[in-house]
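Entry 12.
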Amino acid sequence: MNKVSMPTLIRVMLICDGDLATRENFHKAVQAAAASTALFSIATPEATYLNMNITHVERDIRQGGSPSMLRLMIGAEEVRGGARATLARTGASALTTKEPSGAPLINIGQVNPTPITSKS
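Predicted 3D structure (tokens):
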């Protein structure tokens, strides 16, 4: 059986109560967080979720709530570290440049080209 662990997806309601300026600042801060690529820790009473990226924000409009309360529903997805490239060579001959075009030439063996033949 093949099993793949999927990244965690959560939805959390954020509520801000206060004057208009406070709610506007809160809304702007949440929107900025959603637009960024920063990772956040989201704590709930049940669990703390690490390395979460906010994927969307929607305003929750319900009947019966206080008009001074801003409710935002956010969705977040876990970001996991990816694989890292490793080089076969280490030491003085290892690549030390940030750009591949700036790397020194390395002879890693002979290349035997073969002619391309057309089969028509």
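Annotation: Residues 105 and 111 are 15 Å apart (CA to CA). The longest strand covers residues 48-59.
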